[in-house]
Design a protein that fits this description.
Length: 259
């Protein structure tokens, strides 16, 4: 569900929709409470409500901060792995100049096909396997195995290229595994997040404010903050899709280098 939201709904529209849904729902709930329980407007329970809101707000802020920090760390790790994958492939493209002309053409073509296939699989890495990328990678390995190094320079370039190719392949494997494993908080954390969010909004709704002109904006502001936190967690749930996801630019740089 979270993947569908971040890939289908534009980020701005998603944030607006969550804001309207949560803040609007809280305001409607407040309107019902004010009419159904008019005694709350006197504010006799406000001391208890203040204590409850302070405690719940602290737990909510700590929990959201922990989740966001953890998921942002996953994004940073994915960024580093993508840069390592791209850097290894760029070095492959540069070292190919050491080989004979026929080998250069064959390796460049194979490397270009692989990088284009890897870019194509970027947005779907967490749902499907790209057989085109697998095949292109096998062909790239085969292209290097066909090289017959005749000089010390070519032998050194071949050894270095083989090592870089292994690094690029390993980085791709890590990327695929990360995309499939890092899909946001598991359902127990979503439950806790939902419960704490509801409790934060609930304490604001039942807080005794006689003048509705002060009460409604207060509830709406808290609702918008809760919606913004949920939006941020949704966008951070998938490292390779969404507005805050890791970019495929390191792989695109390889294509630019080859062309």
């Amino acid at each position: 569900m979270s993947r569908w939201l971040v890939t289908t709904v534009p980020a701005g529209l998603l944030l607006l929709g969550l804001g309207l849904l949560i803040a609007g729902g809280a305001v409607l709930a407040q309107r019902y409470v004010r009419r159904r329980f008019p005694a709350l407007l006197q504010g006799e329970h406000n001391d208890v409500t203040k204590f409850a809101y302070g405690f719940i707000g602290f737990v909510y802020a700590f929990f959201v901060g922990f989740v966001v920090s953890s998921m942002w760390g996953q994004i940073n790790t994915a960024d580093g792995n993508a840069r390592a994958e791209g850097a290894a492939a760029v070095q492959l493209a540069r070292d190919v100049a050491a080989f004979d002309a026929a080998d250069q053409v064959r390796i460049r073509q194979a490397l270009l096909r692989y990088e284009q296939a890897a870019i194509a699989e970027w947005d779907t890495a967490d749902t499907t396997e790209s057989r085109d990328a697998d095949t292109a990678l096998d062909e790239l390995y085969a292209a290097y195995r066909q090289v017959r190094a005749t000089s010390d320079v070519q032998k050194a370039a071949l050894a270095t290229s083989t090592s870089n190719l292994n690094e690029a392949s390993q980085a791709r494997t890590v990327r695929l595994l990360t995309a499939r494993a890092d899909t946001g908080p598991p359902w127990p954390l979503w439950v806790v997040l939902g419960v704490t969010s509801a409790m934060v909004l609930g304490t604001v709704v039942v807080y005794g404010v006689e003048r509705s002109g002060y009460h409604y904006p207060m509830v709406a502001v808290v609702g918008v903050i809760v919606a913004a936190n949920l939006f941020l967690i949704l966008e951070l749930s998938h490292p390779y899709v969404g507005a805050i996801s890791t970019s495929s630019d390191p792989l695109q740089q390889v294509v630019r280098t080859l062309r």
